[in-house]
Amino acid sequence: MDSAGAEGPARSGPRYDVFLSYAWEDIDLAVHFQELLEARGLSVFRDVTGMRDYDDIPTVIRAALDGSRTLVALYTPSFPESQYCRWEMYTALTRSYHLSGQTRRVMAVVRGMRFSQVLSSRLKCLRLPAVTAALADVSDSVRRLVDGMDHRTFGDAPEPPVPSWYPEPAVGSRHFRGRLRELWQIRDAFDGDDGAGSDLPPVVFLVGGGGIGKTMLAEQYGRLFAEDHPGGVFVLGGLGSHPDSSRDPLRVAALVGDRIVAIARRLELVGPDAPATAARAALSTRLAATGMPYLWILDDLPAGVDTAVFRTLVAPTALGRTLVTSRAPGPGGQGLHIDVGELGELDSLTLLSSRLSPSPGAERQARRRLAEALGRHPLAMAVAAELVALPETGGFAGLLASFAEPSPDVLETAEQLGVQLPTAHGVSICATLLRGIDRLTPEGLTVMRLASVLAPALFSPDLLTDILGESDREGRDRQEFRESVRRGIAEAERLALARSDGTGSLSVHALVSRTVRLADHDDTARERARRAAVRVLGERLHGPAADAAARFRTFEALPHVRTVAVALAERDDQHLLNEAGRVRSESGDPVTGLELLRLLHDGCVAALGPSDITTLRVLAGLAVAHGMCGDHDAAVRLKHQAYEGLAALLGPHHPDTLTALNNVGVTHLDRGEYRTAWRVFGQVYRARSRKNGALHPDTLSALANASVAVSLEGRHALALRLRTSLLARTARVLGTRHPQYADALNGMGTTAYALGHRAEAADWFDRAYRLRRDLYGEQHGDTLDALENRLVAASADHAGTAGPGLEEECFREVYRWRLDLQGPSHPATVTTLRHCLVACRRGTAADGPAGDEDPTLPTPRMEPVQKLPHGVASGGVRLEADDMDRRIEIFELACSAQELMGDSGEDDEVRALMTQLWLAHATALMDQMDGQRDVALAVAEDTEAGLARELGRDHPLTRTATSLYRWIEELVDAAVERPGEG
């Protein structure tokens, strides 16, 4: 027989040209077909023994399939009903795919049914013989196809390549079995239409109940078909489909943002402090630049996420395929749905006997009945497989017998789990999980208790060690705690109650966690563990994340905050939510920070009442958060409420009252009401000075705020006197290496600049920049503020040594850093855009400065004592309607710079493209005029292509252009989803 291609490696055992797969009901037809194939010189394997229901796949069948070059399926109405036929067909499809990336080695001969009823659709990739074709003619066709195959067999198929997992490897589970049918359904769905006419990249939903194996199925798809997505597998998990999530879609978006940040950091696309928007833009750029398909897994998506939010969660570029696991269908009919139900009979029996093989006869029958009693529920069967291997269980029959008379606690727990369990099998499943929990050692039970107070997201052994150490009252050292946690994790994994990932982190299924909570009757120990978790998470979120290890601890803590902080009347819980809100805002997500603080305030009102001291303090923080989001009307209203409540409760001169009053002044400053802000800050300064003295840090903060107000009002001589005094006092009290001293230096520069002393201002700003660089690093918002101030002061002196070209290049670099660090809509980034445009005009105009434009300095950072996060302006992170005059000015500057560039005849293509990019940014900021975002998107797309052509895809300026393009694209998409909004 001729062969196309080289032969595979020599194999022991029988070799066949054809493995004939058929249902036992069609044996007569199969025998005839075999005779026809053999008459044409083909060696054929056909099972002649048959298999009874629930038999294992015999070794001879597996060996024959491994030794066969092709599989021919005699596809009759009985064929898809046979689990053995399905196993043979899908195994052959998978092996064929791994041999050559195709499925041509698997052929279907259809009889007694329509082609449209044939599954998998892979069988229809070849033109199938007509259902009425004579078997003799079909045999000729099979012979021709076999002749075209090389001599490799299914057993020669290599293992699939290991996919590139992000943000960390997924190592699967030893308890995963089967699901080949569903795996090929997913692949067929991705290769076809998504079933909804959606303009999204391909989306497939795996829908099923808790513990049914959706997550492991999604991971297995990524593993089995790694060659389909060479760009990698991106797993965004821990979204939590518990009931509370359905009312909180913003929480889901925030968690997805966290995972995207982790992925972008793993790929070294962004710095440690980059917000989620910058991380998403950088990742989108990378994915588009690679040009390779990739898999995007959204694991455990809750119900209740609307279409607008869902569109922000799917794969960010057209090359991505989004695979979603959820307990509910997708929003708005998005994507194609695949129901993930009970495990197949054959795979169920294989899973149940993975640790103990049943002896023939009664034990095999007991195994079959045990699978039926558990509803072939994968999680319950995985636990059962471990239990039957324990001597005290009594094997399959012993575990099955224990279901006969369930104890009251089993019945009660099953009732409380309710809809999370299959109705007909809930008691047996619950009994199995409870029995697994009962078999834990004390250390294993402790680990599961700690895990159950956390959210169903990944957590490290170090986190459990910290919580255990915080809750333990025996005074053991950390090494003892670490070893205890290690042994407890091993115990939980051994009983299939927990699963580790490739980095050593652990996850516990939500169904197992809830069962542990219901079964744990030691309320004192549980509450002690919860409070310990609250304190540990609060400590992890408190203060700046100075290094990579601290940033990991912060990132790990965030998903668990809402789960553990449930006693909002307690100070530690309040502190945790407050810190989580601060960290969210600090990382560029002030909206989620606001939501956390609103949750905290609502909880305090319900638990303590609106006039309680804690409630009022939280109200003050909530008001600050509104200001950070740009809602100054709500901010000033809530700040006045907090101030008046605290004044009535604590008196007008209490530190908390004065802090609340100070925050009122901040919002007046944000609203441009400088004289009012000056009066408020002056009142705070006088009260603090009388109470604490002129050298107290709180007094100095009030003086700094007052100096900002008078400076913005234009009274620069007074501002100079105040700031000179402030600088001297700060150096005396806090020293010359303190952040507030850097702020004082910056303030001196602002005043010197306003008074026309440009060289002196540049010197002050240079000192502030150097100190902030030492304190915060090069790419930090405050450092960039001082650097930009120095550039403005230097460029304002037209007799300076720096030429216009160098000036523009310096501003361009700050702009690039701002875009990555703070995002395109941040007020500081918009200010930098203006400075870039002014510098561009200066460098382009032939007769010196273009027009009479003279850049003004950014307003120096002013932080209330309430402590806004570093790098976030007190005015918020989005432009409001009251900034429209500023937007118009920047838009006109951009148009003017573009015109000058065109008139100059300059042949610097990169400089021309950057000017065009700034025009796109300025146009996108004009988002209240018809069609301007679409224009901006087109200009940004053209600019990105031009920079990629001139500099390459990986050049920093090209990546900046791509980041801006993605942002504008999101604005356009949001406008389509919400056409009524500005």
TrEMBL record:
Ranges of residues in domain TIR: 14-146
Which top-level group of life is the source organism from?
Answer: Bacteria
Which keywords accompany this UniProt record? Receptor
Entry coiled-coil feature ranges: none
Region of interest called Disordered, as start-end residue ranges on this chain:
844-869
Record-linked Pfam families: TIR_2 (PF13676), TPR_12 (PF13424)
Gene3D superfamilies given in the database record: P-loop containing nucleotide triphosphate hydrolases, Tetratricopeptide repeat domain, Toll/interleukin-1 receptor homology (TIR) domain
Protein name per the record: Toll/interleukin-1 receptor domain-containing protein
